[in-house]
Specification:
With about 575 residues, this protein is α+β, with helices and mostly antiparallel strands. Strand 11 and strand 12 form a beta hairpin. Strands 7-8-10-9-13-16-14-15 form an eight-stranded mixed beta sheet, with helices on both faces. Strands 25-26-27-31-30 form a five-stranded antiparallel beta sheet, with no helix packed on it. The radius of gyration is 30 Å and the shape is elongated. The protein has four domains: about 70 residues, 2-Layer Sandwich (Alpha-Beta Plaits); about 300 residues, Aminopeptidase, CATH 3.40.630; about 80 residues, Carboxypeptidase-like, regulatory domain (Immunoglobulin-like, Sandwich), CATH 2.60.40; about 80 residues, Immunoglobulin-like (Sandwich), CATH 2.60.40.
C-alpha cells in the first residue's frame, strides 16, 4: 500500500509539473503576442506530411528532423492551441549590446554597427548623390507604417536602360534577420567605391544592371523605433509574414494563383518585379546556414518528385555559393543540411514565398540565402561575415551573363518582346522573355545541347536546333523573326486578303472587276468547315471571324472556273 501511495504521489507531482510548465509557456506566449504581435516557439511534429500541413497555417522558420521552429501571430496561436501540441516558447534575447547602433554615417565606416533608420536613409541617398553616373535610388513603395522601401540601381550608365542582364538582391524581408541588411549596404558601397579601371568589380558595373534592396521589411526591423533594432520582429506591422504573402498555392490541384490582396510591402515588390526583366535574383535571410533553391512547394526528392526544369543548374550554382563561402570562412560555415544547400520543399514546405513567385510568375532564377544561424547577429561580427560572403555574392551576379543569350529582332533590326523557350525542357513557366526596349534575352542553363523556340505576337515562330551551352560561358544567339504578312495577294493574283493575323473580321478584296467569286468557305486544320457569315459590298467581301478560336485556318475561294486556298491565322 505504501509503495502504491508513493507511485500515485509521484505521478501527481509529475502531472502537476507538466501542467505548471504548460501554464508558464502559455503566459510567455501571451505576453509576447501582446507586446510584439508574434511568438517564436518550437515543437515536434510526427512526420514530414504533418509538417507540410502545418506550413499552410503558420510561418515555419526552420525544421530540424520533425522539430518545427515557427512564428505565430495571435490568430495563428489560437488555432495552434487547439492542436494540443506540447511546445516551448523561444524568448527574445536582450540584444541591445550586441546591436551597437550608428547614429551618423561616419560611424558606419568600420561596418561593425547597425544604422539607425535615419542613417540608413542618409546612406542610400548619399550613394546616389556621390555616384550620380553609377547609382540612382528609388522608393518602390511604402511599408504599413509609411517607411520607404528603397532600391539602388548600380550600372555604368545608370540613367539608361541598357542591353545588359538585370540582377536583383533583396534582404531582411523578415525584420529580425539582420545580417543581409548590412551585407547589401556593404555590397553597394564596394561596387561603387571599387569602380576603377583596375578593380575586379569593374566588369560587374559595366556589364550588368544591379538592383539592391537592403531592407525589405523596415517596420519589422525598426519595430522598437527608428533609433534601435533591439527586439526586431519577423512580421510586418500587420503581423504578416511577407515571405508567405506572394501567391496562393492549392495543394490539392497544385495550381499557382496570384492573390487579390497582399501586404503593401509585397505589392511594392511585385510591381517592381513586373517593371523589370530580372535574369537572377536572391533573397537573403537568416536562422540557418544554407543556400535554398526552388521549389518551396515541390520537392526534388522521392516524397513529391517535381523538380524545377533547371534543377541541375540551381544545384550547381547553389553549391558554388556555399563552397566559396566555406573557403573564405572558418570550418563549419554554411554546411547545414546537404553541406550547405537544399531544395526548399525537401527541407520543409512553404507556400507563398518570394522565391517561388519570382521563378514561376516572373520567369526569373531566384535563390534564398540563409547566411547565419543567429538572426540578430552581434554587430562586432559583421565585418567577418562580409569577408565570408563577398566573393560568393559577386560570383552569383556573374551567372546572369552565362548560358544562352542574344537579341530577338524583326527583319529590320527592331527589338521584339518575345518568348524564348527551351524545347522538351521548359515547364512550370521556366521559359524566359526578352527585355522589350532592347530585345535582349538571357537564359542561364546547365551545360548541354538544346533546341530553342522563339515566338512573338504577329511573327512567325522560329526554331533553332543544336545550340550548345557551357557552364561559365556565354553562347551568343541572335534571332530575327519574320512578320506574318498583314496583306496577302493570292497566287492567282485575283484577290487581296487582309489582315493576317486576323482580328474580328477577314477582308477579301477582288483586284479587278472581271473576277467573279461564287462562294467563300473556311476550314480548320482538320478540314472541318467553319460556318461564317460574309457581307459583300461591290468588290469587297467581309467575313465576321469574332467567334473563331486562336489557330490556323484555310480560306477556299470558289470562282466560276476554278478555286484557290489561302492560309490565315488568328492570334
Amino acid at each position: 500500500m505504501t509503495r502504491l501511495i508513493v507511485v500515485l504521489i509521484t505521478f501527481a507531482v509529475f502531472f502537476q509539473n507538466v501542467l505548471a510548465q504548460e501554464i508558464t509557456e502559455l503566459k510567455k506566449a501571451q505576453d509576447l503576442l501582446n507586446t510584439k504581435g508574434e511568438v517564436h516557439l518550437v515543437f515536434d511534429a510526427n512526420s514530414k506530411y504533418e509538417v507540410s500541413i502545418l506550413s499552410g497555417y503558420m510561418s515555419i522558420d526552420k525544421v530540424v528532423g520533425n522539430r518545427i521552429f515557427a512564428y505565430l501571430s495571435k490568430q495563428q496561436f489560437e488555432y495552434f492551441q487547439k492542436l494540443n501540441y506540447s511546445y516551448k516558447v523561444l524568448e527574445t534575447q536582450d540584444n541591445s549590446k550586441a546591436v551597437t547602433m550608428a547614429t551618423t554615417i561616419e560611424q558606419m565606416g568600420t561596418w561593425n554597427r547597425y544604422p539607425t533608420h535615419d542613417v540608413y536613409m542618409e546612406m542610400m541617398n548619399k550613394f546616389a548623390a556621390t555616384y550620380p553616373t553609377l547609382c540612382k535610388m528609388q522608393s518602390i513603395g511604402r511599408s504599413v507604417d509609411g517607411r520607404d522601401l528603397l532600391v539602388l540601381k548600380i550600372s555604368d550608365n545608370v540613367q539608361d536602360d541598357e542591353a545588359e542582364p538585370e540582377v536583383f538582391y533583396t534582404a531582411t524581408m523578415h525584420g529580425d534577420e539582420l545580417l543581409g541588411y548590412i551585407l547589401m549596404l556593404r555590397l553597394a558601397d564596394s561596387l561603387l567605391k571599387g569602380y576603377t579601371p583596375l578593380a575586379k568589380t569593374n566588369n560587374l558595373v559595366d556589364n550588368f544592371e544591379i538592383y539592391i534592396n537592403p531592407l525589405a521589411n523596415p517596420d519589422g526591423t525598426y519595430s522598437s523605433g527608428n533609433s534601435t533594432i533591439s527586439y526586431p520582429t519577423r512580421y510586418n506591422s500587420n503581423s504578416e509574414d511577407l515571405n508567405r504573402d506572394f501567391f496562393n498555392f492549392n495543394t490539392a490541384t497544385e495550381v499557382f494563383s496570384e492573390k487579390s490582396t497582399v501586404q503593401p510591402e509585397t505589392k511594392a515588390m511585385i510591381n517592381f518585379a513586373k517593371a523589370h526583366n530580372f535574369v537572377l535574383s536572391a533573397n537573403i535571410h537568416g536562422g540557418i546556414e544554407v543556400v535554398n533553391f526552388p521549389w518551396d512547394v515541390w520537392t526534388e526528392g522521392a516524397y513529391d518528385y517535381h523538380p524545377h526544369p533547371d534543377n541541375k543548374w540551381f544545384s550547381r550554382v547553389s553549391r558554388a555559393y556555399a563552397t566559396s563561402a566555406q573557403q573564405n570562412s572558418p570550418a563549419g560555415y554554411i554546411d547545414d543540411l546537404d553541406n550547405g544547400i537544399t531544395c526548399g520543399a525537401d527541407w520543409y514546405y512553404a507556400y507563398g514565398t518570394r522565391q517561388d513567385y519570382m521563378n514561376y510568375f516572373r520567369h526569373c532564377r531566384e535563390i534564398t540565402l540563409e547566411l547565419h544561424n543567429t538572426k540578430e547577429l552581434s554587430a562586432s561580427l559583421l565585418p567577418a561575415y562580409w569577408n565570408y560572403n563577398k566573393n560568393s555574392l559577386i560570383n552569383y551576379i556573374k551567372e546572369a551573363a552565362f548560358g544562352i543569350n542574344g537579341f530577338v529582332t524583326d527583319t529590320q533590326g527592331n527589338p521584339l518582346s518575345a518568348k524564348v523557350e527551351i524545347m522538351q525542357h521548359d515547364l512550370d513557366n521556366s521559359y524566359v522573355t526578352t527585355e522589350p526596349t532592347n530585345g535582349d534575352y538571357y537564359r542561364p542553363i546547365e551545360s548541354g545541347v538544346y533546341d530553342l523556340k522563339f515566338s512573338a505576337e504577329g511573327y512567325k515562330d522560329k526554331i533553332v536546333e543544336g545550340v550548345t551551352a557551357v557552364n561559365g560561358q556565354a553562347t551568343r544567339l541572335d534571332v530575327e523573326l519574320e512578320k506574318v504578312q498583314s496583306s496577302i495577294v493570292s497566287n492567282l493574283e485575283s484577290v487581296r486578303f487582309y489582315p493576317n493575323p486576323i482580328d474580328d473580321f477577314l477582308i477579301i478584296e477582288t483586284l479587278n472587276s472581271d473576277i467573279q467569286i461564287s462562294d467563300i468557305q473556311v476550314f480548320d486544320i482538320f478540314s472541318r468547315r467553319i460556318p461564317l457569315v460574309f457581307v459583300r459590298h461591290e468588290n469587297v467581301f467581309k467575313l465576321n471571324t469574332t467567334n473563331l478560336s486562336k489557330g490556323n485556318y484555310f480560306c477556299k475561294i470558289i470562282y466560276a472556273q476554278q478555286t484557290e486556298t489561302i492560309q490565315f491565322v488568328k492570334l
